[in-house]
Amino acid sequence: MLVGMNTQSLVPIGVGIVMVGMIIIIIGSLLSANSGGNSKVAVGGVIGFIPFGFGNDKGMVIAMIVISVVFALIFYFSNFLR
């Protein structure tokens, strides 16, 4: 349980973070549209206990898998903090 924070206030905070992220993505895509260079992308996640990642740059894929493992461990160990 979060101490000192109303859990109902977390939903607007989460929505706000998602909106800010979408705005940053749109601005970044508009600014890089003129560069014409090659773009690199990587996507990752965790299904069950298995982290996965794919993309067109090996370094970014490895970084995405490491980030996915870190988030999976945080999620796993957050159950023990109750």
Describe the structure.
- The protein is α+β, with helices and mostly antiparallel strands.
- It has two domains: 32 residues; 43 residues.
- The protein is 54% helix and 15% strand.
- A two-stranded antiparallel ribbon has the order 1-2.
- The longest helix is centred in the first third of the chain and has 23 residues.
- It starts with 9 loop residues before the first helix and ends with a helix.
- The relative contact order is 0.10.
- The mean pLDDT is 81.
Work out the helix count. Answer: 2
Order of helices and strands: HEEH
* Largest sheet composition: 2 strands, antiparallel
How many strand units?
Answer: 2
Strand order of the largest sheet: 1-2
Helical amount: 40-55%
**Uncertain ranges:** none
Structural shape = flat
Kindly estimate the percentage of residues that lie in beta strands according to DSSP: 5-15%
Helices and strands in order, then pairings?
Layout (H helix, E strand, L loop, with lengths): L9 H23 L9 E6 L2 E6 L2 H21 L4
Antiparallel strand pairs: 1-2
Give the structure's gist in a few sentences.
With 82 residues, this protein is α+β, with helices and mostly antiparallel strands.
